[in-house]
Amino acid sequence: MKSIKPGRGPSMQGLVGSIAAVLFGVFWMVMASSITADSPFPAARFFPFFGLVVIAIGVFQGIYHYKNATGKQRMSLLDIVDSEEEPDPLNVRFGSHKQPNKHCPHCGGHVQHDFQFCPRCGKALLP
């Protein structure tokens, strides 16, 4: 059965965007700290901490996109692959744990994953 899997290119682009967000967060903190250092308003001193929020989001997204770009079990909507070569991670985590049927290497007949012998030709199946 074919399933939709993530492309590695968009995940790498997301990683580059996350790095840019972290750099922007650092820039924000430095600039906001220098601007609000002499502010008469006490609430203005919290303005640089928004940079920390941007940095935290950028780091989280960077880790997520790096794992998506380099891992075998990835999530997205671009590549179509056979479920036997890469199972759907959401189905593995939340779906049924029923394993797909396999084929006999001798006659090509359908056998269930827990069979030791082919019901069609009777030969032993490889583990």
TrEMBL record:
Domain (DUF7577) ranges: 103-125
UniProt keyword Membrane, yes or no: yes
Superkingdom, taxonomy of origin: Bacteria
Keyword vocabulary terms for this entry: Membrane, Transmembrane, Transmembrane helix
Sequence intervals crossing the membrane: 12-31, 43-66
UniProt cross-references to InterPro entries, sorted A to Z: DUF7577
Annotated protein name in UniProt: Zinc-ribbon domain-containing protein
Organism, as annotated: Geobacillus jurassicus
Lineage of origin: Bacteria, Bacillati, Bacillota, Bacilli, Bacillales
